[in-house]
Amino acid sequence: MIELNFTKSTDGLLPAIAQDATSGEVLMLAYINQESWEKTLETGKAHYWSRSRSKLWLKGESSGHVQLVKEILVDCDQDTVVFKVEQLGGAACHKGYASCFFRRMNGDELEVISEPVFDPAKVYG
Amino acid sequence: MIELNFTKSTDGLLPAIAQDATSGEVLMLAYINQESWEKTLETGKAHYWSRSRSKLWLKGESSGHVQLVKEILVDCDQDTVVFKVEQLGGAACHKGYASCFFRRMNGDELEVISEPVFDPAKVYG
Fold first, then answer.
1. If pLDDT is split at 50, 70 and 90, which confidence band does B122 have?
2. Which conformational region is residue B54 in: left (phi greater than 0), alpha (psi within -120 to 50 degrees), or beta?
3. Do B23 and A26 lie within an 8 Å CB cutoff?
4. What's the ipTM?
5. Is there a contact between A74 and B103 if contact means CB atoms under 8 Å apart?
6. What's the half-sphere exposure (Cβ side, CA atoms, 13 Å) at B103?
7. Contacts of A1 in chain B (CB under 8 A)
8. CB B95 to CB A76 under 8 A?
9. Model pLDDT for residues A1-31, shown as the tens digit of each residue
10. Which end of chain B is less crowded, N or C, counting CB atoms within 10 A of the terminal residue's CB?
Protein backbone atom coordinates (compact mmCIF):
# COMPACT_ATOMS: atom_id res chain seq x y z
CA MET A 1 0.00 0.00 0.00
CA ILE A 2 1.15 3.53 -0.73
CA GLU A 3 2.18 5.21 2.52
CA LEU A 4 1.19 8.82 3.04
CA ASN A 5 3.04 11.19 5.31
CA PHE A 6 0.46 11.34 8.11
CA THR A 7 3.08 12.59 10.55
CA LYS A 8 3.16 15.91 8.63
CA SER A 9 0.22 17.16 10.69
CA THR A 10 -0.04 17.18 14.46
CA ASP A 11 -3.51 15.60 14.37
CA GLY A 12 -2.64 12.82 11.89
CA LEU A 13 -5.01 14.21 9.28
CA LEU A 14 -4.16 15.08 5.69
CA PRO A 15 -6.30 16.99 3.19
CA ALA A 16 -7.96 15.08 0.36
CA ILE A 17 -9.35 17.02 -2.59
CA ALA A 18 -12.30 15.43 -4.38
CA GLN A 19 -12.34 16.39 -8.04
CA ASP A 20 -14.95 15.35 -10.59
CA ALA A 21 -13.19 12.75 -12.76
CA THR A 22 -14.97 13.95 -15.89
CA SER A 23 -15.38 17.73 -15.62
CA GLY A 24 -12.33 18.47 -13.46
CA GLU A 25 -14.48 20.57 -11.12
CA VAL A 26 -13.16 20.65 -7.55
CA LEU A 27 -16.05 19.24 -5.49
CA MET A 28 -14.87 19.44 -1.90
CA LEU A 29 -11.97 19.14 0.47
CA ALA A 30 -12.09 16.87 3.49
CA TYR A 31 -9.56 15.16 5.72
CA ILE A 32 -8.28 11.62 5.86
CA ASN A 33 -6.45 9.65 8.51
CA GLN A 34 -4.75 6.31 8.07
CA GLU A 35 -8.02 4.42 8.64
CA SER A 36 -10.01 6.39 6.07
CA TRP A 37 -7.14 6.10 3.58
CA GLU A 38 -7.15 2.30 3.96
CA LYS A 39 -10.95 2.12 3.74
CA THR A 40 -10.92 4.20 0.56
CA LEU A 41 -8.34 1.94 -1.08
CA GLU A 42 -10.12 -1.19 0.07
CA THR A 43 -13.64 -0.19 -1.04
CA GLY A 44 -13.08 2.24 -3.92
CA LYS A 45 -15.46 4.67 -2.15
CA ALA A 46 -14.17 7.89 -0.64
CA HIS A 47 -13.89 7.71 3.15
CA TYR A 48 -12.87 10.72 5.19
CA TRP A 49 -12.43 11.58 8.85
CA SER A 50 -15.23 13.77 10.10
CA ARG A 51 -13.63 16.42 12.29
CA SER A 52 -17.01 17.58 13.65
CA ARG A 53 -18.18 14.09 14.60
CA SER A 54 -14.72 12.61 15.28
CA LYS A 55 -15.46 9.48 13.32
CA LEU A 56 -14.76 7.64 10.11
CA TRP A 57 -17.06 9.01 7.43
CA LEU A 58 -18.12 7.19 4.33
CA LYS A 59 -19.05 10.14 2.11
CA GLY A 60 -22.70 9.66 1.21
CA GLU A 61 -23.58 7.45 4.18
CA SER A 62 -26.63 9.65 4.98
CA SER A 63 -27.41 11.12 1.56
CA GLY A 64 -26.50 8.14 -0.63
CA HIS A 65 -24.22 10.52 -2.52
CA VAL A 66 -21.25 8.20 -2.49
CA GLN A 67 -18.05 9.07 -4.36
CA LEU A 68 -16.64 6.29 -6.53
CA VAL A 69 -12.90 6.81 -6.71
CA LYS A 70 -11.64 6.45 -10.28
CA GLU A 71 -8.09 7.64 -9.79
CA ILE A 72 -5.88 8.86 -6.96
CA LEU A 73 -3.12 11.44 -7.38
CA VAL A 74 -0.47 11.91 -4.70
CA ASP A 75 1.51 15.13 -4.31
CA CYS A 76 5.29 15.59 -4.18
CA ASP A 77 5.40 15.60 -0.36
CA GLN A 78 2.99 12.68 0.01
CA ASP A 79 0.87 14.76 2.35
CA THR A 80 -2.09 15.62 0.09
CA VAL A 81 -4.13 13.53 -2.32
CA VAL A 82 -6.62 14.15 -5.09
CA PHE A 83 -9.48 11.68 -5.39
CA LYS A 84 -10.84 11.79 -8.94
CA VAL A 85 -14.40 10.66 -8.40
CA GLU A 86 -17.71 9.89 -9.95
CA GLN A 87 -20.11 11.72 -7.63
CA LEU A 88 -23.31 9.71 -7.26
CA GLY A 89 -26.42 11.90 -6.99
CA GLY A 90 -24.55 14.66 -8.81
CA ALA A 91 -23.86 16.70 -5.67
CA ALA A 92 -21.01 16.65 -3.17
CA CYS A 93 -22.17 19.54 -0.98
CA HIS A 94 -24.54 19.04 1.97
CA LYS A 95 -26.13 22.32 0.89
CA GLY A 96 -27.35 20.64 -2.30
CA TYR A 97 -24.82 21.99 -4.78
CA ALA A 98 -22.64 19.89 -7.07
CA SER A 99 -19.56 21.43 -5.47
CA CYS A 100 -18.95 22.89 -2.02
CA PHE A 101 -17.22 25.68 -3.96
CA PHE A 102 -20.47 27.12 -5.31
CA ARG A 103 -19.56 30.70 -4.48
CA ARG A 104 -17.10 33.02 -6.17
CA MET A 105 -15.64 36.17 -4.75
CA ASN A 106 -16.85 39.26 -6.49
CA GLY A 107 -15.22 42.20 -4.74
CA ASP A 108 -16.57 42.05 -1.17
CA GLU A 109 -19.41 39.71 -2.04
CA LEU A 110 -19.79 35.97 -2.46
CA GLU A 111 -21.73 35.30 -5.60
CA VAL A 112 -23.50 31.93 -6.03
CA ILE A 113 -22.35 30.52 -9.38
CA SER A 114 -24.41 27.34 -9.70
CA GLU A 115 -27.88 25.98 -9.12
CA PRO A 116 -28.63 23.49 -6.33
CA VAL A 117 -29.04 19.89 -7.48
CA PHE A 118 -31.16 18.78 -4.49
CA ASP A 119 -33.05 20.20 -1.54
CA PRO A 120 -31.07 19.42 1.66
CA ALA A 121 -34.27 19.33 3.75
CA LYS A 122 -35.55 16.44 1.65
CA VAL A 123 -32.28 14.51 1.61
CA TYR A 124 -31.25 14.92 5.26
CA GLY A 125 -34.83 15.05 6.60
CA MET B 1 -13.23 41.89 2.75
CA ILE B 2 -14.55 38.34 2.76
CA GLU B 3 -13.87 36.77 6.16
CA LEU B 4 -12.73 33.17 6.24
CA ASN B 5 -13.24 30.89 9.19
CA PHE B 6 -9.62 30.79 10.40
CA THR B 7 -10.74 29.63 13.85
CA LYS B 8 -11.69 26.26 12.30
CA SER B 9 -8.12 25.06 12.70
CA THR B 10 -6.07 25.14 15.88
CA ASP B 11 -3.09 26.70 14.08
CA GLY B 12 -5.08 29.42 12.26
CA LEU B 13 -4.26 27.91 8.87
CA LEU B 14 -6.72 26.94 6.16
CA PRO B 15 -6.04 24.96 2.99
CA ALA B 16 -5.98 26.76 -0.33
CA ILE B 17 -6.16 24.72 -3.53
CA ALA B 18 -4.44 26.23 -6.57
CA GLN B 19 -6.17 25.16 -9.77
CA ASP B 20 -5.14 26.09 -13.30
CA ALA B 21 -7.75 28.64 -14.42
CA THR B 22 -7.69 27.34 -17.98
CA SER B 23 -7.19 23.57 -17.83
CA GLY B 24 -8.80 22.91 -14.43
CA GLU B 25 -5.78 20.87 -13.37
CA VAL B 26 -5.19 20.91 -9.60
CA LEU B 27 -1.69 22.35 -9.24
CA MET B 28 -0.98 22.27 -5.51
CA LEU B 29 -2.37 22.67 -2.05
CA ALA B 30 -0.83 25.03 0.45
CA TYR B 31 -1.97 26.83 3.60
CA ILE B 32 -3.06 30.39 4.21
CA ASN B 33 -3.40 32.43 7.36
CA GLN B 34 -5.14 35.79 7.70
CA GLU B 35 -2.03 37.67 6.56
CA SER B 36 -1.49 35.60 3.41
CA TRP B 37 -5.21 35.85 2.61
CA GLU B 38 -5.04 39.65 2.82
CA LYS B 39 -1.83 39.80 0.78
CA THR B 40 -3.37 37.62 -1.93
CA LEU B 41 -6.44 39.84 -2.19
CA GLU B 42 -4.34 42.99 -2.13
CA THR B 43 -1.80 41.94 -4.77
CA GLY B 44 -3.66 39.41 -6.95
CA LYS B 45 -0.70 37.04 -6.47
CA ALA B 46 -1.07 33.86 -4.42
CA HIS B 47 0.51 34.16 -0.99
CA TYR B 48 0.63 31.23 1.39
CA TRP B 49 2.02 30.48 4.83
CA SER B 50 5.10 28.32 4.63
CA ARG B 51 4.78 25.75 7.40
CA SER B 52 8.40 24.60 7.00
CA ARG B 53 9.84 28.11 7.15
CA SER B 54 7.12 29.64 9.39
CA LYS B 55 6.81 32.71 7.20
CA LEU B 56 4.63 34.46 4.68
CA TRP B 57 5.37 32.98 1.27
CA LEU B 58 4.79 34.69 -2.02
CA LYS B 59 4.55 31.66 -4.30
CA GLY B 60 7.31 32.10 -6.88
CA GLU B 61 9.49 34.39 -4.77
CA SER B 62 12.56 32.21 -5.47
CA SER B 63 11.62 30.64 -8.80
CA GLY B 64 9.72 33.54 -10.38
CA HIS B 65 6.84 31.12 -10.85
CA VAL B 66 4.22 33.46 -9.46
CA GLN B 67 0.53 32.54 -9.52
CA LEU B 68 -1.76 35.26 -10.84
CA VAL B 69 -5.12 34.77 -9.16
CA LYS B 70 -7.93 35.03 -11.68
CA GLU B 71 -10.82 33.88 -9.51
CA ILE B 72 -11.38 32.76 -5.93
CA LEU B 73 -13.97 30.19 -4.90
CA VAL B 74 -15.00 29.81 -1.26
CA ASP B 75 -16.52 26.64 0.15
CA CYS B 76 -19.76 26.22 2.10
CA ASP B 77 -18.02 26.34 5.50
CA GLN B 78 -15.76 29.23 4.57
CA ASP B 79 -12.74 27.22 5.65
CA THR B 80 -11.23 26.26 2.28
CA VAL B 81 -10.62 28.25 -0.88
CA VAL B 82 -9.78 27.54 -4.50
CA PHE B 83 -7.44 29.97 -6.21
CA LYS B 84 -7.95 29.73 -9.95
CA VAL B 85 -4.60 30.85 -11.24
CA GLU B 86 -2.44 31.55 -14.22
CA GLN B 87 0.78 29.79 -13.31
CA LEU B 88 3.75 31.78 -14.59
CA GLY B 89 6.62 29.58 -15.80
CA GLY B 90 4.14 26.76 -16.37
CA ALA B 91 5.06 24.84 -13.24
CA ALA B 92 3.77 24.97 -9.67
CA CYS B 93 5.86 22.16 -8.23
CA HIS B 94 9.35 22.73 -6.82
CA LYS B 95 10.26 19.41 -8.43
CA GLY B 96 9.77 20.97 -11.86
CA TYR B 97 6.37 19.57 -12.77
CA ALA B 98 3.32 21.62 -13.79
CA SER B 99 1.41 20.16 -10.85
CA CYS B 100 2.55 18.79 -7.50
CA PHE B 101 0.13 15.95 -8.27
CA PHE B 102 2.34 14.47 -10.99
CA ARG B 103 1.98 10.90 -9.71
CA ARG B 104 -0.97 8.57 -9.93
CA MET B 105 -1.56 5.46 -7.87
CA ASN B 106 -1.31 2.32 -9.89
CA GLY B 107 -1.86 -0.55 -7.48
CA ASP B 108 1.01 -0.31 -5.01
CA GLU B 109 3.07 1.97 -7.23
CA LEU B 110 3.18 5.70 -7.87
CA GLU B 111 3.37 6.26 -11.60
CA VAL B 112 4.67 9.60 -12.94
CA ILE B 113 2.04 10.93 -15.35
CA SER B 114 3.66 14.07 -16.72
CA GLU B 115 6.97 15.43 -17.93
CA PRO B 116 8.94 17.98 -15.92
CA VAL B 117 8.76 21.56 -17.23
CA PHE B 118 12.03 22.74 -15.69
CA ASP B 119 15.13 21.39 -13.97
CA PRO B 120 14.93 22.28 -10.25
CA ALA B 121 18.74 22.42 -9.97
CA LYS B 122 18.81 25.23 -12.53
CA VAL B 123 15.92 27.21 -11.04
CA TYR B 124 16.80 26.95 -7.35
CA GLY B 125 20.58 26.85 -7.92
1. confident
2. left
3. no
4. 0.96
5. yes
6. 20
7. 108
8. yes
9. 899 999 998 899 999 999 999 999 999 999 9
10. C
